[in-house]
Amino acid sequence: MLLRSVPRLLSGLLACLTALLLAGCSSTDTAGSAAGETDTARASAPAWADGMDTVRKAELPAEARRTLALIDTGGPFPYAKDGSVFGNFERELPRHERGHYREYTVRTPGERDRGARRIVTGRDGEVYYTDDHYNSFRAVLR
């Protein structure tokens, strides 16, 4: 009877050890960071994004990725205000002289107006995304 339970015991032990190993490999440190942000994402963030929540370009909504492609090619942009100076009046982004930041609309399906989503770019290559009309920003990792 004891010999029959040994393989089951070893199999169970192996399953538990595998689960622990996999859990350790996929854990993230979320203290002081956005939920789900990995150490790799923080480590690869440029200096201008230091201390900010980040989002990888591939994780942005499809509409935001299309807006980034338009920015990269210089347009044409669907909204007249795209490319206008972003004043940073909310002070959510690092302070710079007026004209440093430009804003672009990220289309929101179902919205009749410009909606709340924007991409804001900085003169030095910074890219930020907001989906709550400037209340918060995430640095875009490209």
From TrEMBL:
It comes from the Bacteria. It holds the Pfam family Ribonuclease. Keywords: Hydrolase, Nuclease, Signal. One of its GO terms (molecular function) is RNA endonuclease activity. PROSITE patterns: PROKAR_LIPOPROTEIN (PS51257). Transmembrane segments: none annotated. Residues 1-31 form the signal peptide. This is Ribonuclease N. The lineage of its organism: Bacteria, Bacillati, Actinomycetota, Actinomycetes, Kitasatosporales.
